[in-house]
Each structure stands twice: as structure tokens, then as C-alpha cells.
Design brief:
Layout: H1 2-25, E1 27-36, E2 47-52, E3 58-63, E4 69-75, E5 80-85, E6 92-97, E7 103-110, H2 113-128, E8 129-132, E9 135-139, H3 151-155, E10 161-163, E11 169-171, E12 174-175, E13 178-181, E14 184-185, H4 192-195, E15 203-211, H5 214-219, E16 227-234, E17 240-251, E18 256-266, E19 269-278, E20 329-342, E21 348-372, E22 375-401, E23 408-433, E24 438-464, E25 471-497, E26 500-529, E27 534-556, E28 562-565, E29 571-589, E30 593-610, E31 618-636, E32 639-650, H6 654-657, E33 668-671, E34 679-692, E35 697-709, E36 711-718, E37 724-731, E38 734-747, E39 752-769, E40 772-791, E41 795-810, E42 820-834, E43 837-848, E44 857-870, E45 876-883, E46 891-897, E47 900-906, E48 912-923
Parallel strand pairs: 1-7, 13-16, 33-37, 36-39
Antiparallel strand pairs: 1-4, 2-3, 2-5, 5-6, 8-9, 9-15, 10-11, 11-12, 13-14, 15-16, 17-18, 17-48, 18-19, 19-20, 20-21, 21-22, 21-47, 22-23, 23-24, 24-25, 25-26, 26-27, 27-28, 27-29, 29-30, 30-31, 31-32, 32-34, 34-35, 35-38, 36-37, 38-39, 39-40, 40-41, 41-42, 42-43, 43-44, 44-45, 45-48, 46-47
Length: 932
């Protein structure tokens, strides 16, 4: 039995030896050298493992020699792969092999983990920021924001973009005029309704570019009249759902705010509704009133200054523009609706409706130094006001394509606004000489009510011929403005002589004012390609404008009824204009260079008629030139240079030639000048920017300048009793210029974004005081920075600061300069104290230095709140906060105007505490998740 067992053991041992021998003969050799990809040096002691492909079982391992070479046997019949490992280096695998012969792998690359991570970051940065022609595009998800953040918070993270405390946006040193959503207007002329209400996580791309006019976009060539624009491209999956926010808040001292917005996107269709009620000055307070000003062109050429209308020439009773302006305590009741959709052939429809009832109460304190050849007069006034405006506004736009090739199309714009205003003010003031001697005291009460209405429509008919860039378009437009207002003036002035009351002037009148303007416009434009890259564009048009304005003043009779017409301060005028205009422009366009130059010329004739017969009819004829040239040079894909020049005329307005006599302010009287000449303006802008999408850094610089000949200015004559007469006249010597720049980069060590920016402006303004020429020089320089660091659901911190110097000096009484230093610092951010508890802080400190004219001011405003979030996505928030903790808020303005230096202090919102409940909601938007 034992012998049998011994024999079996020998048999099994022999069989095992035979198998091992067979295996040794069924192997092949792989060799090569392991190399560092960065330093290109060979690596020794690198571990090389042979693993079976089926189950990653370790078959064999080895190490590289001193010279980095290796040679290792591998099985012939079993699929395998090689694994190379080395400390501080990323592992490398060769892939599955099943070879029947020896293999020489050559150089096997290994990268350090740090270098590999940097490559990943670089790739992410390249995707985060891309230069496409004239467009800088940011991928929104590449920039960290907190859950439920708004677009405004996202924009603050983007390099080269600044958002100030009021929500105004600057991109690469230039003010952003429009914020579009998928290339379309969203709530019309109020970008803040987009940036403060739209969620950041529904945005796919943020595009910054200069938007061309409809005409320029149609011809395919730039015309030099672009507007800096931000376009928000919405994520495709976010176009199939609903999102919005509801906020209800109540606080101390009667402060409250409630607002909500609802957005429903369905493929190409967007519907939005927003509403807000409150007195905390958040949204819906400031409307762009450009729609009330005539724009007589399709935006393709800068000849809008040809037309002057009577609109606004008799609105002295209602000088308030209908906006908040950070002055007083506002109560706003606001609502808005938006709808847009895309139809067959790409036809688009866009409509907005807004309604607002705005009531503002407050007071203003003004100090004015009036520098005269003989000395300085100092005015002080305090104004208490109570204003109300009720507005309805409807805007619509249609972009219609009549065929699939888009050769025939039409763009239609329509606008209507009804604005009813009530205004009441009570002003107490006095004027003293430089020694403090009283010259006059005044009390002026104004009450008024009025309706300012605007209706306009235009159409651009477009046809593309078969030949590329050969186009024909016809622009038709009309606009009708009306301004009806009336009220009461109660004005008392006491005049003093050597400190003794010498006489008293009393005015008690009712005023009825009316003005209206109708403008009709037609213009044809034809473009013809001259070569592959060159085009010629010609245009011709006619324009007619009819305006009228009247003012009727009534004195009070013995029975207290205002029915006695004051003919001295009652006027009625008609102001008619007719113009022929034509232009020719040459364009050259390649991938790197876009260049154009040309001019428009306008032959303008107008007639001014005094309906009361007190003055003769005035007829004038002018020939106006509007040259322009622009160059865009794409030095590299991420480096651009732009140069723009244009010249334009400005006609004297109706009120400057023959003003409607006003006596609402007996201390300030205006006189027209029928001999005024049109002024001519030259404007030059240069902009250069460069972005490095790998290092995520860049910079921009720009310069601008303009000068005006025959500028329309004033000759102010101030009498000994302090009353001033303003007479319009022409002068030469006005200019202004400036420069700006910025640099941004990421500080890797701190993982912090840094933006540094600087600005400089200088201007000279000429006017006359008591027939003596006055030269007012103003300079302003500033440098600032913004640093930001963020970690999702941990913290979001930022520090903004700037320092500036303001130089203001008049040649008359030059010792009364207004030079001062100003400094601002704004640390702000939020920190998660716990998983769903967040502390928000915002401290804004402003210092206005002492000048020869005014004292120094320190204004420090601290806002803070603590929030508790509920829900998985933290969509429900309860917030307790304080506005202006130190009760220091103050609205201050310092400026120069001719020979006068102003400082204005406005009442504004100060300390209050508030408890708010905020609900952010979204449904059906799977990919519109918070950014990671």
C-alpha cells in the first residue's frame, strides 16, 4: 500500500514538472522603456504587473532597470494586460493583449498626478470659455454658484464682467445695453428683470458680443453702431418645464416686499410672468424711457441727430422722469408678462407687457456754488416731494420669413406706452454771497398732473437676391408722442439789500401745457458685392416731422378763480421739418479683418411758427454730414482690436431757438437764440482685448475721445439780487477723452478669481458767466479690484474695492475747486454655518473726501441676514435680515455744470429688519440642476 502511494506521488510530481516545462516554453517577451512625459527622463524601479484580462489575477510582476528598461515574459494563450505603477505618478495600462510573438513597446509614458490633474483642469477651462469670432462664450456650469442662484450671481463669476450694486453690467470695460434670452428680448428694456429673476442653473451658455442692427445683420456687414450685449442660451432640457420664485416679506417701520416670477418653457415657446409689491427698492422701479425719444432710423447709421422735436420743451411742471433714482422712499406695484415663440421657416414672435404704479416721497438738499467773475454766490435749498406715476407699456416684435430659403423677410416692431404722472414739491431756499450776506430767500410750491403717451411702429422689408450679399431693404416708421400736463405755481421770493428786505415777488398761477409730435420716415438700402470680400451699400430716404407746443398761464382773479390769461407767459408754436438724406458705404470683410467707411448726408429744412404772432416765422436750411469708419482686426483667435469713428451734427432744439417762456422758477429764466448754429461732434473709440483660455486669464484696454465744435452752451447773467438769465449761444473748445483697462486671472495657490480694473476720464466744457468765458475742467481716475472664492454649499466670498480721485476746477474763481478723493470697499458673501443654515453679509463703505467746497462724508452700509433652507434641493428658505444695520445710508452726488459746483444729498431707505419666506420651484427640468 505504501509503495503504491509512493509511486502515485512520483507520477503527480512528474506530471507537474511537465506542465511547468510546457508553460515555460509557451511564453513570449515584452520589453520597452518607461519615460516621464514632462521631463522626458527614464524612470527606474517602476512596477510592471501582468494581469489576466478575465479576472485581473496577478500572473507575474517585475520592475524597470536603472535605465528605465524592462523585459517581462507573458503568457501566449491567456488574454492579459500590463499595469505600470510608480509613486506620485498616475497608473498606466497597456490594454488587453493576446500575442503570439515578442513585442517591443518602445517608450511607455507616465505622467505625474499633479500634471495629469492640471491637464484635466485646462481641458475644463478650455470648455468653460471659448472665443468664436466676435463672441466670447462662457459655459455656465463651469462656474460655481450656490443652489438657486440668479443669473446676476452667475455674471459676477465670469472673467471680464462686473456687476455694480445697482445691477448695472459692464463687460470688458463697456456698459452692457441689452440682455437677451436665446437671442430674443426678454421683458424689453429692463435687463435687471432677467438677471435678478432668471435662475442660473437653466443657462447653458453666456455669450458676450456687440449686437448689430437689424439692417447690418441682414446685409452681413457691420456698420459700426453695435451695442454691447449679453445673450443667455438656455439648456435644451430646461426648455421643457416650469421654474420660478415666490417671496413674501414683512419688516419694521412699515417696510415690506413681496414678489414672484413664473416661467414656463416648452421647446421654442417661452412664457413668463412677474409681479412685485414693496417699498424696499428691489425691482420694477426704473424704466428705460428711450422709447419716448425719437429714433429716426433703422439703427444702421448714426444720423438720428437730424431731428429735433417739441417733446419735453414745456414739461417744466413735471421735471421728474418717472423713475426711482435712489431718491426717497418708493412704493412700487409692478407686473409684467412676456411671450415669445418660433414658427415655420424660423418666424419669431416676441411680446412684452408691463404695468407699474410707483409712488415716491422724500426730500433733497442741494448746495450750489455759482462762480462769477466778481465772486461766488452760494445757494442752499431743501425740497420735499411727493411723486406718483402709473404706466402701461406694450412692446411687440415679429421677425417673419416668407420662404424656407429666407430670401424674403420682414421685421416689425410696435410700441405703446401710457404714462400718467402726479407731482407735488415744496422748495425752500436762499442765496448768500461769499461773506455769508443774505441775497434772497424763496419758497416755491408746484403741483401738477399730466399724461405722457407714446405710440410707434416700424417695419423693415428685406429681400436677398440669389447672388450672395446682394440685398434690398425698405424701412418704414412712424412715431406719435403727446404730452399734456397742467398745474399750479405758488412762488414767493424775498430780496435783500445789505441784509435788509428790499422787496417781495409773488407768483400765483395755473399752467396748461400741451405738446405733440408726429414723425414719418422711409428709407431704402441696397447692398452690392464688389468682390469676394468687398461690398458697397447705398441708401436714400425722406423724413417728415410735425410738432406743436403750447403753454397757457392764468392769473387768479378776485374770486380766487384762475381765468385771467397772462399773455407774457403764454405761447404756442409749430415746428415742422423735412429732410432728404442719402449715403454710401464701402465694406471689406475677411475672417481676420472687417473694415468700412462712408458717409451719410442730410438736407434738412425746418420752419418754426409762433401761433400767437408775437415773433416772426423762422425758416432754416442745413446740410449735415455723418462720416463713419470702423476697423475690426482679429489678430489671433483670442486677440481682437476694434477702432470706430463717427461724426454727427446736432441741431438746436425748438426750446433753444425760441423757448416757450416759463416762469415756474422766477430765479432762473431762459432766453432763446434764433441765430444758433448746429454743433458738430467727432467720436473715436479704440478697444483691444486678449484672452488666454488655457491659463484662464486675459486683459482688455480701451480709449475713447470726442470733441465738439459750435457746441450749444449758455451765457448766464446773474443779477445782484441772485436771479439768473440763461441765453443759448455757440462756443468752441469742448472735448472729453478717457481710457479704461482690466486684467483677470485665477490665482491657483488660493483658488481665487481676481479682476483688476481702472478708468480715467477728462473733459472740458465752455460756457459764459456774465459774458466772461468760463472753462470747466473735470478729471476722474479710479483703480479697483474684485476677488472671489467659492465652494458649493460651503461659502461664497468676495471682496471689491476701488480708490479714485476727482478733479473739478473752473477758470472763474478757480480757488473754489471741487477736488476730492473717494474710496469704496465692499466685502460680501455667504457662509454655511450648518448644512442648511446660511449667513449672508454685505458691507459697503464709501468715503467722499473733503474739498475746498464741501466737507468729507463717510457712508457705511451693512446688510446681513441668516437663512434656514428646507428640502432636498434647499428650495424653501426662511430669512431674517437687517438692511443698513448702522443706519448710515445716504445718497450723495457731487458734480460740476459749467461755472457751478453741485452737491446733492437725497433721502433714501435706511435701517429696517425683515422676515421673509422664499420658495424656489422648478419642475420637468432634469438637466437644470445646480452647477457642480
Amino acid at each position: 500500500m505504501d509503495q503504491k502511494r509512493t509511486t502515485l506521488k512520483k507520477y503527480y510530481l512528474l506530471l507537474l514538472l511537465l506542465c511547468m516545462s510546457a508553460a515555460s516554453f509557451a511564453q513570449h517577451v515584452i520589453k520597452g522603456t518607461v519615460t516621464d512625459t514632462t521631463s522626458k527622463t527614464n524612470l527606474k524601479e517602476v512596477t510592471i504587473s501582468v494581469l489576466t484580462a478575465a479576472d485581473s489575477f496577478l500572473y507575474k510582476f517585475s520592475k524597470t532597470d536603472k535605465d528605465g528598461s524592462f523585459s517581462i515574459s507573458v503568457p501566449d494563450s491567456i488574454p492579459y494586460f500590463l499595469l505600470f505603477e510608480y509613486p506620485h505618478y498616475a497608473s498606466f495600462t497597456s490594454g488587453v493583449e493576446q500575442a503570439g510573438k515578442d513585442i517591443n513597446m518602445g517608450a511607455v509614458p507616465l505622467s505625474t498626478k499633479a500634471h495629469l490633474l492640471e491637464e484635466v483642469i485646462v481641458k475644463k477651462r478650455v470648455g468653460a470659455m471659448i472665443i468664436k469670432g466676435d463672441t466670447t462664450e462662457f459655459t455656465a456650469d463651469s462656474f460655481k454658484v450656490q443652489p438657486n442662484a440668479t443669473v446676476e450671481e452667475l455674471l459676477k463669476k465670469l472673467p471680464g464682467i462686473q456687476v455694480d450694486k445697482s445691477g448695472n453690467i459692464t463687460a470688458q470695460g463697456q456698459a452692457v445695453k441689452r440682455v437677451l434670452v436665446d437671442g430674443e428680448e426678454f421683458f424689453g428694456d429692463d435687463p435687471k428683470l432677467v438677471t435678478k429673476n432668471l435662475r442660473a442653473d437653466v443657462v447653458d451658455k453666456v455669450q458676450v458680443y456687440d449686437k448689430k442692427s437689424d439692417q447690418a445683420a441682414f446685409t452681413g456687414v457691420s456698420d459700426g453702431n453695435d451695442e454691447r450685449t449679453i445673450n443667455l442660451k438656455i439648456k435644451e432640457t430646461a426648455k421643457h418645464g416650469t421654474f420660478g420664485k415666490v417671496e413674501v416679506g414683512g419688516g419694521t417701520n412699515g417696510f415690506h416686499q413681496s414678489q414672484g416670477n413664473f416661467n414656463q418653457f416648452n421647446k421654442s415657446q417661452k412664457f413668463s410672468a412677474t409681479a412685485a409689491v414693496g417699498n424696499t427698492a428691489k425691482v420694477g422701479l426704473d424704466w428705460n424711457n428711450d422709447s419716448q425719444n425719437w429714433n429716426n432710423d433703422d439703427g444702421s447709421n448714426n444720423d438720428g441727430a437730424d431731428i429735433q422735436t417739441a417733446q419735453g420743451s414745456n414739461s417744466t411742471l413735471i421735471s421728474w422722469d418717472g423713475n426711482y433714482g435712489n431718491n426717497g422712499i418708493p412704493l412700487s406695484q409692478f407686473g409684467g408678462l412676456h411671450y415669445d415663440n418660433t414658427y415655420k421657416y424660423g418666424t419669431k414672435l416676441n411680446a412684452d407687457y408691463k404695468i407699474n404704479n410707483l409712488m415716491i416721497k422724500g426730500n433733497t438738499v442741494s448746495d450750489i456754488r455759482n462762480n462769477l467773475p466778481t465772486g461766488t454766490l452760494i445757494s442752499h435749498s431743501e425740497n420735499i416731494f411727493d411723486n406718483q406715476s402709473f404706466r402701461n407699456k406694450l412692446d411687440g416684435r415679429g421677425e417673419i420669413y416668407f420662404d424656407s430659403a429666407k430670401q424674403n423677410s420682414m421685421i416689425v416692431n410696435a410700441h405703446g406706452q401710457l404714462d400718467h404722472r402726479n407731482s407735488a414739491s415744496n422748495t425752500m431756499g436762499n442765496m448768500k454771497d461769499a461773506n455769508g450776506n443774505l441775497i434772497n430767500e424763496s419758497r416755491n410750491r408746484l403741483t401738477s398732473t399730466g399724461d405722457i403717451n407714446t405710440f410707434s411702429a416700424n417695419a423693415l422689408l428685406r429681400h436677398k437676391f440669389k447672388k450672395e450679399r446682394r440685398t434690398l431693404s425698405l424701412y418704414l416708421a412712424e412715431q406719435y408722442n403727446t404730452n399734456d400736463n397742467g398745474g399750479f405755481v405758488d412762488n414767493t421770493i424775498n430780496y435783500y439789500d445789505n441784509g435788509v428786505l428790499s422787496r417781495t415777488s409773488i407768483l400765483d398761477q395755473r399752467k396748461d401745457n400741451n405738446s405733440n409730435t408726429l414723425v414719418l420716415n422711409a428709407k431704402a438700402t441696397y447692398s452690392e458685392p464688389l468682390s469676394k470680400n468687398a461690398s458697397l451699400i447705398v441708401n436714400y430716404g425722406i423724413l417728415a416731422s410735425n410738432s406743436s407746443a403750447s403753454t397757457y398761464s392764468y392769473n387768479k382773479n378776485a374770486q380766487g378763480i384762475y381765468d385771467s390769461l397772462d399773455t407774457k407767459f403764454s405761447n404756442s408754436y409749430k415746428f415742422n421739418q423735412f429732410m432728404h438724406r442719402a449715403g454710401m458705404f464701402y465694406y471689406y470683410n475677411t475672417k481676420k479683418v472687417n473694415f468700412n467707411f462712408g458717409t451719410n448726408v442730410g438736407f434738412n429744412r425746418f420752419t418754426q411758427t409762433d401761433e400767437t404772432g408775437k415773433t416772426e416765422t423762422v425758416k432754416r436750411n442745413f446740410v449735415n454730414w455723418y462720416p463713419q469708419a470702423s476697423l475690426r482686426y482679429n489678430i489671433q483667435s483670442n486677440t481682437r482690436l476694434r477702432i470706430n469713428y463717427n461724426g454727427s451734427n446736432t441741431q438746436p432744439s425748438m426750446s433753444q431757438i425760441q423757448p416757450l417762456a416759463q416762469n415756474t422758477d422766477s430765479l432762473n429764466i431762459y432766453i432763446g437764440n434764433p441765430n444758433l448754429k448746429p454743433s458738430y461732434n467727432n467720436n473715436l473709440n479704440i478697444n483691444f482685448n486678449k484672452f488666454d483660455i488655457v491659463s484662464f486669464s486675459g486683459y482688455y484696454v480701451g480709449m475713447w475721445g470726442n470733441n465738439t465744435t459750435n457746441v450749444i452752451t449758455t451765457n448766464t447773467t446773474t443779477a445782484a439780487n441772485g436771479s439768473t438769465t440763461y441765453e443759448y449761444t455757440n462756443a468752441n473748445g469742448n472735448y472729453s477723452f478717457g481710457g479704461y483697462g482690466g486684467i483677470f486671472r485665477k490665482i491657483k495657490k488660493w483658488e481665487t478669481d481676481l479682476n483688476v480694473f481702472l478708468n480715467y476720464t477728462q473733459s472740458r466744457y465752455i460756457n459764459f458767466a456774465n459774458s466772461a468765458k468760463n472753462e470747466s475742467i473735470s478729471r476722474s481716475s479710479s483703480i479697483g479690484f474684485r476677488m472671489g472664492k467659492e465652494k458649493e454649499k460651503k461659502y461664497s466670498l468676495a471682496l471689491e474695492a476701488s480708490v479714485g480721485y476727482n478733479f473739478n476746477k473752473t477758470s472763474l474763481q478757480s480757488q473754489q475747486s471741487n477736488n476730492y478723493v473717494n474710496f469704496t470697499i465692499n466685502p460680501n458673501g455667504n457662509v454655511y454655518l450648518a448644512k442648511a443654515v446660511k449667513l449672508n453679509m454685505d458691507y459697503n463703505f464709501n468715503y467722499y473726501g473733503k474739498s475746498n467746497s464741501y466737507n468729507a462724508y463717510n457712508i457705511g452700509i451693512m446688510n446681513a441676514s441668516i437663512s434656514k433652507m428646507f428640502g432636498k434641493s434647499e428650495n424653501l428658505e426662511i430669512r431674517a435680515g437687517v438692511n443698513d444695520l448702522f443706519n448710515k445710508n445716504l445718497s450723495l452726488q457731487r458734480t460740476n455744470s459749467g461755472n457751478q459746483i453741485y452737491q446733492v444729498l437725497n433721502s433714501t431707505i435706511r435701517r429696517y429688519y425683515m422676515l421673509s419666506v422664499i420658495w424656489n420651484f422648478k419642475t420637468g427640468m432634469a438637466s437644470a440642476a445646480p452647477s457642480n
